[in-house]
Amino acid sequence: MAATWPIQQVGSKGEDVRTVQYLLAVHGHLVTVDGNFGPATKSAVQAFQSSRGLTADGIVGNHTWEALIVLVGAGASGDRVKAVQGQLATQGWRLAIDGAFGPQTSRSIRDFQTAHGLTVDGVVGAQTWYAMVAGFFRLGTPELASAHLYDAWGANDRATALRNATQAAVDLLLRGERGTLTALGCSPDPVLGPGHFICTYAFEGGVVNMQTRGNSTDGYYVESASFVAD
């Protein structure tokens, strides 16, 4: 089945638009990186499409995404690195969006690849780009995202849970209207390695075991979870 990338067009907003804007700059079509797909971004997309022999409709669909993405690895810098860092940051990794491909960016990419079952090489190629951009739902509010997470975790569906486990959604889920979870303890995850933890919480309906990742057991991003009812 063909890859399906998220369509970006006039009126679109958010991190995927910023990614498009960063990548346009990489290809020599400079626009303000503000996350808003307005007339200037449409014009830049059309110019890029024309330069690649694509239909110049100003809409970023499958073919335009595939032409926009570039290889990002050690030694890279600038807008291509910021595009990667922005995607990772909105999905829970704690790193600066500074355009410098340093140790933290390298670790985060490898961590992302591990979590998504990709080849762990620290290089953002086509498969890693697709997992970052198309494999992550961007729901409109943390409330919607937390509901998505709760349902996925309740079904022990790791793949679906990964698709919207933003820090804001996780925080709301743990502290929101469904009740506060009581931490029972965390320990290093022996399978996923450094930076990953298995944390257990008690909640009103039973116990939740979470696989998490981050710099500490306080600053983690939830990777998956399973609920065990009382």
Structure characterization notes:
The longest helix has 13 residues, at 39-51. It contains 9 helices and 4 strands; from the N terminus they run H-H-H-H-H-H-H-H-H-E-E-E-E. The mean pLDDT is 81. The radius of gyration is 19 Å and the shape is globular. Strands 1-2-3-4 form a 4-stranded antiparallel sheet. With 230 residues, the protein is an alpha+beta fold. It folds into 2 domains: 15-133, PGBD-like superfamily/PGBD (Muramoyl-pentapeptide Carboxypeptidase, domain 1, Orthogonal Bundle); 142-229, no CATH class. It has helices at 15-26, 39-51, 62-68, 79-90, 103-115, 126-133, 142-154, 158-162, 167-175, and strands spanning 182-188, 196-203, 206-214, 220-229.
Topology:
Elements (H helix, E strand, L loop, with lengths): L14 H12 L12 H13 L10 H7 L10 H12 L12 H13 L10 H8 L8 H13 L3 H5 L4 H9 L6 E7 L7 E8 L2 E9 L5 E10 L1
Helix pairs in contact: 1-4, 7-9
List its salient traits.
about 230 residues, alpha+beta, Muramoyl-pentapeptide Carboxypeptidase, domain 1, globular
End-to-end Cα distance, whole Å, is: 41 Å
Structural class: alpha+beta
Instruction: Tell me the total number of β-strands.
Output: 4
Estimate percent helicity: 40-55%
Q: What fraction of the residues are assigned to beta strands by DSSP? A: 5-15%
Question: How many distinct folded domains?
Answer: 2
H/I helix tally: 9
Main sheet, how many strands, which sense, barrel? 4 strands, antiparallel
Side-by-side strand order of the widest sheet: 1-2-3-4
Order of helices and strands: HHHHHHHHHEEEE
CATH superfamily of the largest domain: PGBD-like superfamily/PGBD
Low-confidence stretches: none
In round numbers, the mean pLDDT is 81
CATH architecture of the largest domain: Orthogonal Bundle
- Radius of gyration over alpha carbons? 19 Å
CATH topology of the largest domain: Muramoyl-pentapeptide Carboxypeptidase, domain 1
The CATH class designation of the largest domain is Mainly Alpha
Shape: globular
